[in-house]
């Protein structure tokens, strides 16, 4: 089909974006794998930086570039959900919140959407104690659109929605359709 399965993690601005990004990359990356990142230094999109480095060679300036400027994007190879994949991570920043959107090319998955959904649920549950996002979602060609405060108020129908509950664990809500965006439950 040529589309993406998106996995989004959204945080209130009271958490440090740089620390969250470091933790996410630590959870996703094979230490020997190269990372390619691209960032724009101005809103007019005239001054871009693209850098290819090994994970072990990332320095604080790289994290500053990714978290302080515009249109930040990271590509890295990772063993993810049992598949060797090229992950595309986009960093979203808003006045009240920020997030990381991981796009997974759906043609790489040779399992059913129900099995993929179960794998994503297990992955998100496993990393929650380390990443401490305010909410997460799994969606077909998804986008980060809502702050953690808005997500509760909106009638959002993500394929998968992970919300913090009062016990510091996750409540998992399943939408009307599967991750292919077409098949109804």
Oligomer: single chain
Spatial order of the strands forming the largest sheet: 3-2-4-5-6-1-7-8-9
Backbone shape = globular
Average pLDDT: 89
Radius of gyration: 16 Å
Distance between the termini: 20 Å
How much β-strand is present in the residues? Answer: 35-45%
Question: Main beta sheet, described?
Answer: 9 strands, antiparallel
Number of domains: 1
Count up the helices: 4
Would you list the SSEs in sequence order as H and E? Answer: EHEEHEEEHEHEE
Uncertain runs are: none
Percent helix, as a range, is 10-25%
**How many strand elements?**
9
Helix-strand category = alpha+beta
Account of the 3D structure:
This protein is of the alpha+beta class and 185 residues long. The protein has one domain (4-174). Helices cover 25% and strands 38% of the residues. The protein is built from four helices and nine strands. It has helices at 17-28, 60-68, 113-131, 148-153; strands at residues 4-12, 34-40, 48-54, 70-80, 83-93, 97-105, 135-140, 160-164, 170-174. Strands 3-2-4-5-6-1-7-8-9 form a nine-stranded antiparallel beta sheet, covered by helices on one side. A hairpin with a 2-residue loop joins strand 4 and strand 5 (83-93). Helix 1 crosses helix 2. The longest helix has 19 residues, at 113-131. The protein is globular. The mean pLDDT is 89.
């Amino acid at each position: 089909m040529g589309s993406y399965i998106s996995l989004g993690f959204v945080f209130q601005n009271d958490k440090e974006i740089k620390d969250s990004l470091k933790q996410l990359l630590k959870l996703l990356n094979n230490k020997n794998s190269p990372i390619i990142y691209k960032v724009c230094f101005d809103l007019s999109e005239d001054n871009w930086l693209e850098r290819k480095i090994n994970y072990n060679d990332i320095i604080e300036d790289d994290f500053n570039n990714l978290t302080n400027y515009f249109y930040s994007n990271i590509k890295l190879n990772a063993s993810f959900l049992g598949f060797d994949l090229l992950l595309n991570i986009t960093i979203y920043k808003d006045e009240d919140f920020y997030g990381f959107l991981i796009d997974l090319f759906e043609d790489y998955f040779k399992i059913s959407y129900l099995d993929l959904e179960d794998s994503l649920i297990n992955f998100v549950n496993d990393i929650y104690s380390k990443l401490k996002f305010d909410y997460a979602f799994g969606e077909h060609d998804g986008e980060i659109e809502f702050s953690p405060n808005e997500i509760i108020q909106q009638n959002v129908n993500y394929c998968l929605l992970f919300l913090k509950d009062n016990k510091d664990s996750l409540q998992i809500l399943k939408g009307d359709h599967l991750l292919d965006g077409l098949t109804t439950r």
